[in-house]
Amino acid sequence: MKKESAQLGNEGIYDVKQLGLPRTLLLGLQHMFAMFGATVLVPIITGLDVATTLLMAGLGTLLFHLITGGKVPAFLGSSFAFLGGYAAVCPKLEDGSPNTEMIPYACLGVFVAGLVYALVALLVKVLGVSRVMRFFPPVVTGPIIISIGLILAPSAVNNIVTPIASGTLADGTQTFHPVGFNWIVALSALLIIVIFNIWGKGMAKIVPIVIGIVVSYLVAVVLGIVDFTAVKQADIIGLPLHSEQFMFGAFKDGSKAISAIITMAPISLATMMEHIGDISAIGATAGRNYIAKPGLHRTLLGDGLATSFAAMFGGPANTTYGENTGVLALTKVFDPRVMQIAAVFAILLSFFPKFSAAISTIPAPIIGVISFILYGMISAIGVRNVVENQVDFTKSRNLIIAAVILVSALGFNGIGGVSFTIGSTTITLSGLAIAAIVGILLNALLPGKDYNFSEADPKETGVNFEI
Q1: Which residues contact 171 (CB under 8 A, 6 or more apart)?
Q2: Are 207 and 323 in contact (CB under 8 A)?
Q3: What span, in angstroms and rounded, lies between the C-alpha atoms of 185 and 350?
């Protein structure tokens, strides 16, 4: 281990034995803090449970480290890429409460998406990285990512402008806070996030969302639009699992289950590109090629099984986190055991329901402005994907593939997808699913493929869904 540390030279300390237990625990806590803001955003936006999400992030990270032999300093948190799938399969109810009836179906779709990772990992092992990656070039994944953000955009704006209930009159009429309060809270969140994201230093630059939420939440408390009823009613300690959100509840209706799978599974194409980009970035930060050793097939398998495991018990899809790569660059400590400690902290935190209840009191305008930024950045990340990979749009094949993907995703989403019946089962293909299927087929059939992926010298794909 000391030999490995010496090889890194000034790039960083690899062995936590040189740090001692107190500093190692502090580093683990810092990594937990770095992933926290983004990880809890997914359940806040989708209606999944915050405590379950933290538990599955921790357990998923430990599972990933087990499968990769504890060689990769990565943390797995909630994936933003699947937000479009959740919005299509289990949109929140009109009053903003979780759609508990449809959440199991969304989880089943995410479970299968995780199995797609496992399948691709097997293909990578058998066929080699380059051959498999030819089917998922940036000309396909880039437009798909752009579509995810654009499809979600209306829901972000709706969260900002929808009035917040303030009470009920004696005659049963519901009253609302002034809509101007929404804008005050939303703009305060937006301003803080922009300032710290651009001009922040150290950890402040890595967790601008957390800072923005805290400041705007305090503004909301001052304005009197935060309801603390859920916090008062919540237990101090409790189990972070809720059977009504388990994936197994999706076996009641075959049509809904198949439609959810078809909606969710294609999103794994985008998240696999994110995975490769993150593993490459972690390798560049630590001075190691993790794509070659322990191998892309192992890291994909670890990420995929962590996602499937989380979905079984009502957690969101997992993905390797860019925020924690930023912490690696700051601390220069690349020992994977620090990430494992962070995972344990996340697991412990999940057993405090009052904490989860406090998170659930975040007003809709704050969620809306976070979503506003996030969804826009997802689309911008898709643009970055095609630019950084130098996709040649002077070629007609590339233009056709991108055009068909974008129009299919947005056009079919606008009409609610396409439904058809096989036997007694009705299946619905979402716009995103249609776009992914058509894009992959066009890329495979049209001549002139010009994308090659090198295992020996992996490049960042430009795909990173974290802010």
Answers
A1: none
A2: yes
A3: 28
The total number of residues written for the chain in this structure: 467
Q: Which residues pair with 426 in a beta bridge?
A: 421
Q: Could you read off the pLDDT of 358-397 as tens digits, one per residue? A: 888 889 899 888 888 878 877 887 888 888 888 999 999 9
- Mean residue pLDDT of the chain comes to 86
- Tokens 């960083």, located at residue: 12
Pairwise CA distance, residues 467 & 318, whole Å: 16
Give the Cα separation of 260 and 251 in Å (integer).
12
pLDDT over threshold 60, residue 8: no
3-state secondary structure (DSSP) of residue 90: coil
Q: Residue 238: its pLDDT value, please?
A: 92
Question: Measured between alpha carbons, how far is 82 from 267 in angstroms, rounded to an integer?
Answer: 6
Give pLDDT tens digits for 39-57. 888 998 899 999 999 999 9
Coil, strand or helix at 95 = coil
Q: How far apart are the first and last CA of the chain?
A: 34
> Which residues lie below 8 Å from residue 54, measured CB to CB, with a gap of 6+?
39, 40, 240, 346, 347, 349, 350
Bridge-based pairing state of the strands 425-429 and 174-176: unpaired
* Three-class secondary structure of residue 17 per DSSP: helix
Angstrom distance (rounded) from CA 178 to CA 263: 38
Residue 251 buriedness (CB in 10 A; 0-12 / 13-18 / 19+): exposed
Burial class (CB in 10 A: 0-12, 13-18, 19+), 163: middle
Helix (H) or strand (E) holding 428: strand 425-429
For residue 325, what are its two tokens? Answer: 């790569």
pTM attached to this predicted model: 0.80
- Range 157-174 average pLDDT: 84
The per-residue pLDDT for 460 is 60
**Cβ(109)–Cβ(263) below 8 Å:** yes
pLDDT mean over 266-273: 85
Structural contact between residues 444 and 261, judged by C-beta atoms closer than 8 angstroms = no
Cα distance between residue 229 and residue 467, in whole Å = 31
Q: Is pLDDT above 80 for 17?
A: no
Q: What is the mean pLDDT of residues 14-23?
A: 72
**Residue 264 backbone phi and psi in degrees, to 5:** -80, -40
Picking from 213, 328, 270, the residue whose alpha carbon sits closest to that of residue 465 is 270
Whether the ω angle into residue 447 lies within 30 degrees of 0, i.e. cis, is no
**Which 8-state DSSP code applies to residue 463?**
-
Instruction: Enumerate helices (H) and strands (E) in the chain, giving the number of each.
Output: 20, 6
Cα–Cα distances (Å) from 306 to 115, 299, 379, in that order, read 10, 11, 26
